[in-house]
Design brief:
Blueprint (H helix, E strand, L loop, with lengths): L23 E2 L20 E5 L5 E5 H5 L4 E8 L4 E12 H5 L8 E6 L4 E5 L7 E6 L2 E2 L9 E3 L12 E7 L6 H4 L20
Parallel strand pairs: 1-5, 2-11
Antiparallel strand pairs: 2-3, 4-5, 5-8, 6-7, 6-11, 8-9, 8-10
Length: 199
Protein backbone atom coordinates (compact mmCIF):
# COMPACT_ATOMS: atom_id res chain seq x y z
CA UNK A 1 0.00 0.00 0.00
CA UNK A 2 1.31 3.44 -0.87
CA UNK A 3 1.92 5.96 1.89
CA UNK A 4 1.97 9.73 1.61
CA UNK A 5 3.67 12.44 3.59
CA UNK A 6 1.42 14.69 5.70
CA UNK A 7 0.02 17.50 3.59
CA UNK A 8 0.53 15.68 0.24
CA UNK A 9 -2.27 16.58 -2.16
CA UNK A 10 -0.88 15.43 -5.48
CA UNK A 11 0.43 17.58 -8.31
CA UNK A 12 -1.93 20.33 -9.42
CA UNK A 13 -2.22 21.10 -13.09
CA UNK A 14 -0.60 24.49 -13.81
CA UNK A 15 -3.91 25.75 -15.20
CA UNK A 16 -6.08 24.17 -12.51
CA UNK A 17 -7.73 27.50 -11.69
CA UNK A 18 -9.21 27.36 -15.21
CA UNK A 19 -10.38 23.76 -14.89
CA UNK A 20 -14.05 23.38 -13.88
CA UNK A 21 -14.88 20.77 -11.23
CA UNK A 22 -15.02 17.20 -12.49
CA UNK A 23 -13.00 17.98 -15.64
CA UNK A 24 -9.56 16.79 -16.79
CA UNK A 25 -7.26 18.63 -19.25
CA UNK A 26 -6.41 17.17 -22.64
CA UNK A 27 -4.15 18.22 -25.51
CA UNK A 28 -6.29 16.37 -28.05
CA UNK A 29 -9.66 17.45 -29.47
CA UNK A 30 -11.99 14.43 -29.19
CA UNK A 31 -14.71 14.11 -31.81
CA UNK A 32 -18.18 13.29 -30.46
CA UNK A 33 -21.36 13.29 -32.55
CA UNK A 34 -24.86 11.88 -32.20
CA UNK A 35 -25.06 10.78 -35.84
CA UNK A 36 -23.38 10.96 -39.26
CA UNK A 37 -21.17 13.96 -40.03
CA UNK A 38 -22.88 16.36 -42.45
CA UNK A 39 -20.63 17.70 -45.21
CA UNK A 40 -21.94 21.00 -46.53
CA UNK A 41 -20.04 22.86 -49.28
CA UNK A 42 -19.65 26.53 -48.45
CA UNK A 43 -21.40 27.48 -51.70
CA UNK A 44 -24.51 25.68 -50.40
CA UNK A 45 -24.27 26.88 -46.79
CA UNK A 46 -26.70 29.51 -45.52
CA UNK A 47 -27.37 30.95 -42.08
CA UNK A 48 -30.91 32.08 -41.27
CA UNK A 49 -32.07 34.17 -38.34
CA UNK A 50 -35.79 33.73 -37.59
CA UNK A 51 -37.58 36.00 -35.12
CA UNK A 52 -40.42 34.91 -32.87
CA UNK A 53 -42.76 36.61 -35.36
CA UNK A 54 -41.50 34.45 -38.21
CA UNK A 55 -39.46 37.16 -39.92
CA UNK A 56 -36.33 35.76 -41.57
CA UNK A 57 -32.98 37.11 -42.63
CA UNK A 58 -30.41 34.89 -44.34
CA UNK A 59 -26.70 35.11 -45.17
CA UNK A 60 -24.73 33.14 -47.73
CA UNK A 61 -21.18 32.05 -46.93
CA UNK A 62 -19.69 35.05 -48.73
CA UNK A 63 -22.09 37.43 -46.98
CA UNK A 64 -21.20 35.92 -43.60
CA UNK A 65 -17.48 36.25 -44.36
CA UNK A 66 -18.02 39.94 -45.16
CA UNK A 67 -19.33 40.60 -41.63
CA UNK A 68 -16.97 41.74 -38.84
CA UNK A 69 -14.57 38.94 -37.88
CA UNK A 70 -12.98 38.27 -34.50
CA UNK A 71 -10.16 36.03 -33.29
CA UNK A 72 -11.03 34.14 -30.13
CA UNK A 73 -8.70 32.27 -27.77
CA UNK A 74 -10.69 30.38 -25.15
CA UNK A 75 -10.93 27.25 -23.05
CA UNK A 76 -13.60 24.71 -23.97
CA UNK A 77 -15.25 22.11 -21.73
CA UNK A 78 -17.08 18.96 -22.82
CA UNK A 79 -19.82 17.37 -20.74
CA UNK A 80 -17.88 14.08 -21.07
CA UNK A 81 -15.39 15.71 -18.66
CA UNK A 82 -12.48 16.78 -20.87
CA UNK A 83 -11.31 20.38 -21.13
CA UNK A 84 -8.95 21.93 -23.67
CA UNK A 85 -7.14 25.17 -22.89
CA UNK A 86 -6.37 28.09 -25.20
CA UNK A 87 -8.20 26.90 -28.30
CA UNK A 88 -7.94 29.38 -31.19
CA UNK A 89 -10.90 30.25 -33.41
CA UNK A 90 -11.99 32.90 -35.91
CA UNK A 91 -15.56 33.85 -36.69
CA UNK A 92 -18.41 36.33 -36.60
CA UNK A 93 -19.85 37.49 -33.25
CA UNK A 94 -23.51 36.49 -33.11
CA UNK A 95 -24.42 40.04 -32.11
CA UNK A 96 -23.48 41.05 -35.70
CA UNK A 97 -26.37 38.89 -36.96
CA UNK A 98 -28.68 40.40 -34.33
CA UNK A 99 -27.90 44.00 -35.25
CA UNK A 100 -31.10 45.94 -36.03
CA UNK A 101 -33.27 42.95 -35.08
CA UNK A 102 -36.29 43.80 -32.95
CA UNK A 103 -37.47 40.99 -30.72
CA UNK A 104 -39.59 40.37 -27.64
CA UNK A 105 -38.11 36.90 -27.27
CA UNK A 106 -35.97 35.89 -24.31
CA UNK A 107 -34.71 32.56 -25.67
CA UNK A 108 -33.11 31.11 -28.77
CA UNK A 109 -32.57 27.77 -30.45
CA UNK A 110 -29.73 26.86 -32.77
CA UNK A 111 -30.68 24.69 -35.73
CA UNK A 112 -28.11 22.64 -37.59
CA UNK A 113 -27.58 20.63 -40.74
CA UNK A 114 -28.24 17.02 -39.76
CA UNK A 115 -31.23 17.91 -37.57
CA UNK A 116 -29.47 18.80 -34.31
CA UNK A 117 -30.75 21.67 -32.16
CA UNK A 118 -29.93 23.22 -28.79
CA UNK A 119 -31.42 26.01 -26.68
CA UNK A 120 -30.22 28.85 -24.47
CA UNK A 121 -31.29 32.24 -23.11
CA UNK A 122 -31.07 34.97 -25.74
CA UNK A 123 -28.61 37.00 -23.64
CA UNK A 124 -26.07 34.17 -23.92
CA UNK A 125 -25.74 34.89 -27.64
CA UNK A 126 -23.96 38.12 -26.73
CA UNK A 127 -21.03 35.88 -25.73
CA UNK A 128 -21.12 33.60 -28.77
CA UNK A 129 -19.72 33.40 -32.29
CA UNK A 130 -20.36 31.58 -35.55
CA UNK A 131 -16.85 30.26 -36.15
CA UNK A 132 -15.37 28.93 -39.38
CA UNK A 133 -11.66 28.61 -38.54
CA UNK A 134 -9.88 26.54 -35.90
CA UNK A 135 -6.17 26.87 -35.11
CA UNK A 136 -5.59 28.76 -38.35
CA UNK A 137 -7.33 26.29 -40.67
CA UNK A 138 -10.83 25.99 -42.10
CA UNK A 139 -13.01 24.18 -39.57
CA UNK A 140 -13.21 20.49 -40.49
CA UNK A 141 -16.60 18.74 -40.82
CA UNK A 142 -15.73 16.49 -37.87
CA UNK A 143 -15.49 19.55 -35.63
CA UNK A 144 -18.61 21.20 -37.04
CA UNK A 145 -17.40 22.80 -40.26
CA UNK A 146 -17.96 24.67 -42.34
CA UNK A 147 -19.33 26.70 -39.39
CA UNK A 148 -20.39 26.01 -35.84
CA UNK A 149 -21.63 28.01 -32.90
CA UNK A 150 -19.03 28.77 -30.22
CA UNK A 151 -20.40 29.45 -26.76
CA UNK A 152 -17.39 28.67 -24.56
CA UNK A 153 -18.91 29.62 -21.21
CA UNK A 154 -21.23 26.58 -21.49
CA UNK A 155 -20.54 22.88 -22.04
CA UNK A 156 -19.51 22.21 -25.62
CA UNK A 157 -22.79 20.56 -26.67
CA UNK A 158 -24.26 24.07 -26.65
CA UNK A 159 -21.67 25.13 -29.28
CA UNK A 160 -23.75 23.50 -31.98
CA UNK A 161 -21.88 21.94 -34.90
CA UNK A 162 -22.91 22.51 -38.54
CA UNK A 163 -25.05 25.49 -37.55
CA UNK A 164 -27.49 26.77 -40.16
CA UNK A 165 -29.53 29.25 -38.16
CA UNK A 166 -30.93 30.71 -34.98
CA UNK A 167 -34.58 30.94 -33.99
CA UNK A 168 -35.64 33.55 -31.44
CA UNK A 169 -38.49 32.44 -29.17
CA UNK A 170 -40.62 33.77 -26.33
CA UNK A 171 -40.58 30.41 -24.56
CA UNK A 172 -37.70 28.08 -23.80
CA UNK A 173 -37.84 24.95 -25.96
CA UNK A 174 -35.36 22.14 -25.16
CA UNK A 175 -33.14 20.93 -27.98
CA UNK A 176 -31.81 17.48 -28.88
CA UNK A 177 -29.70 16.61 -25.84
CA UNK A 178 -31.81 18.66 -23.43
CA UNK A 179 -34.87 16.62 -24.41
CA UNK A 180 -32.82 13.50 -23.69
CA UNK A 181 -32.00 14.48 -20.10
CA UNK A 182 -29.07 16.88 -20.34
CA UNK A 183 -29.22 20.02 -18.23
CA UNK A 184 -31.20 22.83 -19.83
CA UNK A 185 -28.40 25.40 -19.33
CA UNK A 186 -25.07 23.55 -19.02
CA UNK A 187 -22.71 25.70 -16.94
CA UNK A 188 -19.46 23.70 -16.46
CA UNK A 189 -18.52 25.61 -13.31
CA UNK A 190 -21.75 24.44 -11.66
CA UNK A 191 -21.45 20.91 -13.16
CA UNK A 192 -24.82 21.20 -14.87
CA UNK A 193 -24.62 17.96 -16.82
CA UNK A 194 -27.98 16.29 -16.26
CA UNK A 195 -31.48 17.75 -15.85
CA UNK A 196 -31.49 17.18 -12.07
CA UNK A 197 -28.07 18.77 -11.40
CA UNK A 198 -28.04 22.03 -9.39
CA UNK A 199 -29.63 25.07 -11.10
Amino acid sequence: MASFSPGFRGRAHPLSDRLPPGQYPTESFPVLSAGPTPRIPTEEWTFTLTTEQGEKQSWTWDEMMALPQEDITTDIHCVTRWSKFDTRWRGVPVKAFLENVETTGHYARAHCYGGYSTNFPLEDLLNAWVVHTYDGYALSPEHGGPARLLMPHLYLWKSAKWVRGLELTRHDEPGFWESGGYHNYGDPWREQRRWNDPP
